[in-house]
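Deliverable D4.2, example record:
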Amino acid sequence: MSVELSREEILQVLQRRGFANVDRRPRQYAESWQRGGQLVNVKTHDSDPLVVHPRHEGHLAMLQSLSGVHAGQRPYCHNSQFTGFPKRFHTGRTKVHYGIDFGFASVAALDAFLDVLLSGSAATGRVAFDAEALHFLNQFMAPDNPQLHYWLPRYRETLATVREALERGSPEDLFERVWKSRDNAVSNAGRGRMGHDEADRNRDRLCQLLKDIAADGSPSAYAGAIERFTQWRDQGHISNVYRLLVARAFAAIHPEPYHTTVDAEKQERIIPWFVEHTGFVPPSGNWAARAEALSAHLQASGEFSEPELRNMFPWFVHEHMRDATGKVPFQPGHTPKPAAGKAQGSSITREIEYRHNVIQDRLFEILCARHGQDAVGTERPTGTGGRADALVLLPGSSYALYEIKPAATAADAVRQAMGQLLEYAYRRGGLQPVSLHVVSDAPLDDLTAEYLVRLKSDFALPIEYLQVTVEDCATRVEASLELLEESV
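Output generated by the structure prediction step:
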């Protein structure tokens, strides 16, 4: 039997390979060593001393196949001092850091192991957003991104509810939110949803699965959950293997490693984008293994201040991906937003009108009257990272693009709208619409009308101007202000 490398011998190799101790103070059970974006923990004893991030589970078979390398505890080892690693429930009522531990028969074995770890972009810290990725990121983080206003607060609320239920040891309290709700703010189950009667018949099974997921959120546990669903289907308990719901459960209970694009097919569509534009090196494996790796890759970029934002970004990218026909997917519809609100100053609260929202409501009505409700959508992805204020799907699958700019004059509105219209239309991946429309409450004056005619005649730019006055929706504004007064 060969003699394993001691922790001291492992530390010598790590230092030779450029790793540095990053502990702020001495620790009793483990030390953290880092090179670039690759962090490992080293136990303070000689039994399988090197512990790597659980995202490397997707490469476990390859790592174990290296001569002189063996994995230790299965599936994971746990310690509160494995800093920098995610947490999971183990034997106690609170989550604890975990990783995958290894031992080595020789220095050559350890060097070969480190070569594999350092070969991926997420391990080396070479997470670099190119110009396209940075543009998408800036659009995602823009204050007017509706996802930050209407999705993010609900997502945070769901995660808080899940966390509280787990902390009091009651995962069964999550039954309705995880297995039955159509949209629980982690994701929309859509057609992958389980019928309520079917869920209720299997309540005990599904509640037990929630407990098991809370105890083990690893990719191998995800594979086990899918296997359970397969057995239940084969035994006649359920009608389908609800993969999306299982992935949504993992993403709700373990948001640290899993993002919100829980549909495996959709995740496969966006992975090439992240490979091309951020240097992501995807591992093999199931949805969970690849989702965990992508989340770790995005976290290593340092671009996200909150894990919730990191988890939402892949879905933002998905919305702008073109489908098999080469088109940005279009969905009709409109969600009205407040026509008025309150602004809190240093000493007073004043009423404000959201002219953009009022104009958008009226524009939607006008366009539906002209083209039909199934052809008009608002706040729709453009394929460039931006969102169109309004889109009309025309015969032949072409688009008419509308950008709203409340302004004092038509000249101001055109100036403000032009950059976004051109970007959404003609930037790589853009809509290539047949017409561009500036929409404002300002009347069109002769000089601005002449300017637009020249843009069309001299530059073949298909641009139009549409005035939609706020007065058209004055009743709605007044009603909104009355509701605000009543709520104070």
